[in-house]
Write a structure and sequence with these properties.
The chain has 80 residues and is mainly β. Helices cover 11% and strands 41% of the residues. It has a single domain, classed as SH3 type barrels.
């Protein structure tokens, strides 16, 4: 996936949550635009902690763009 593809989701107005699917089967939900930083070859994803999306992130994950198989909007509740 290209950086521009992820940036299109992040810059959409109004913002809509979306899910990143990785080649190993893992997924990451981006529920706020500030929880993802797009770099040239990776996306740094902030994973919310027990306090939810308004609290601090529990951890960060580097997702290599070459391993992102797709990204889709999340309709309704965010799946974990």
């Amino acid at each position: 996936m290209r950086p521009e593809d992820i940036l299109r989701f992040l810059r959409a107005r109004p913002f809509e949550s979306f899910r990143i699917y990785m080649s190993d089967g893992s997924t990451f939900d981006i529920i706020r635009p500030e929880l993802a930083i797009v770099e040239r070859s990776t996306v740094l994803v902030g994973v919310p902690g027990p306090q939810g999306p308004d609290g601090p992130v529990e951890r960060t994950v580097f997702c290599a763009l070459v391993h992102i198989t797709r990204a889709e909007k999340v309709n309704g509740a965010v799946a974990r």
